[in-house]
UniProtKB/TrEMBL annotation:
One GO molecular-function entry: beta-glucosidase activity
UniProt keywords, alphabetically: Glycosidase, Hydrolase
Gene: bglA_2
Annotated protein name in UniProt: Beta-glucosidase
Family to which this protein belongs: Belongs to the glycosyl hydrolase 1 family.
Organism lineage: Bacteria, Bacillati, Bacillota, Bacilli, Lactobacillales
Presence of the UniProt keyword Hydrolase in the record: yes
Highest taxon, organism lineage: Bacteria
Record InterPro entries: GH (IPR017853), GH_1_N_CS (IPR033132), Glyco_hydro_1 (IPR001360)
One biological process term in Gene Ontology: carbohydrate catabolic process
Pfam families for this protein: Glyco_hydro_1
Keyword Metal-binding: no
Amino acid sequence: MNNLIRKVRLIDLKMPKGFLWGGATAANQCEGGWNEDGKGPSTADIATVGSIDKARVYTSKIEDDLYYPNHEAVDFFHRYKEDIALMAEMGYKCYRMSIAWTRIFPTGLEESPNEAGLQFYDNVFDELIKYGIEPIVTMCHYEMPLYLMDNYNGWKSRKLVNLFEKYAKTILDRYNSKVKYWLTFNEINSAILSSIFSLGIREASMQETYQASHHQFLASAKAVKYAHDNYPRVKVGMMYGGIFSYPHTCNPEDVMACEKDMDRYLYFPNTMCRGYYDRKAKSFWKNNGIKIDMNEEDEQILLDGKVDFIAFSYYMTMCSSASIEVKMNLVGSSIDGAENPYLSKTDWDLSIDPLGLRYALNILYDRYQLPLMIVENGLGAIDEIDNNMEIHDLYRIDYLKKHIIEMKKAVLQDGIPLLAYTTWGTTDIIAAGTGEMKKRYGQIYVDRDDEGNGTLNRYKKDSFYWYKRVIESNGEFLE
């Protein structure tokens, strides 16, 4: 009984002093203003709307008669002051966001940056700082200049390394006094799931995917080294798309299949955190006929550009199996995994596994011994707004509460050094995978539908008030 009481009290304790609570969005999913103030078109701007069972189509150019939801998104570009005020009301300590590369360099080739784009983010950062909200900024979040995809085949070309380095230096020079925490590429391991999302390549072979990822590793490393050499207060991390797997059964073949699956995904943080390609990476290349074209200086670039911390998203776990018969394709996802009979699912068929978050935190810290951030965690659901303009999303509160409990156990019982927790998202935003609005994640409802109709007015959900109490108590009160 005493042991049970001790565990309950640990769960009820506060998080460490200075812990950063907040929320997260991405520029292409929330900003809008896709062609305003000199911004160029990005790869996200040619994506149409899809559905739970239908992927988005990336058109060859912008067609006048098609709806592109990212063009206006939820209009953060014009409403950022309103949205940041709502973040402050919730008590945010941090806000994870991204910069649109094409606001700074519209095609990626310009020698001089677009001053209007730079000023926009100055304004956003100043507004955050006014309320004491720490920006956590992703340099490249599922978008890049469309010109570079059309003319260079995206990250397949090594030329993008220097173009990204120019962009990274520009924003580090401009914002180093306002932004302490940076991430280079969002969910960089998603390159093996969707080449157009991560790499700006419409269709990529395995060889092309890993060569393009090598170019991203170099670009990230150069950004990290530049920050270290010039701005000692700045910390630069990598962002891992949180894929964590269990063996489907205790059959040794399933255990080995799980090991191989995790090796495939952790290839990315292995390289960026350690600064070199390990034996498993090289064995993977050999076994799959991959030959990475490297310059003589590449090994040193990777070593000099090791990241300072790991940020990751967490929505689900998967199961690995050696038996092809039990493999299934998750709806709305390109991740193969066996069914886990112990877990429930979201409306978009992703497993709900709060304990898996504690498991994930332990895996990442034990492997890399670097500070961690959870920069995406949330429930995509269909929210209904009633006649009183209220949204009773108790299911989202339940989801977040259970995940935060496991996060606290990881920190307070397992000793994991965790810097931040940001829900996905803040306001409702355009879903990355499907372009839908009805797949809502935010604590703030945005009046917008999948066809682009609505006032864009903001309404506080029940989860808004609940999360406000969580932050006020530093995680002590979760009811």
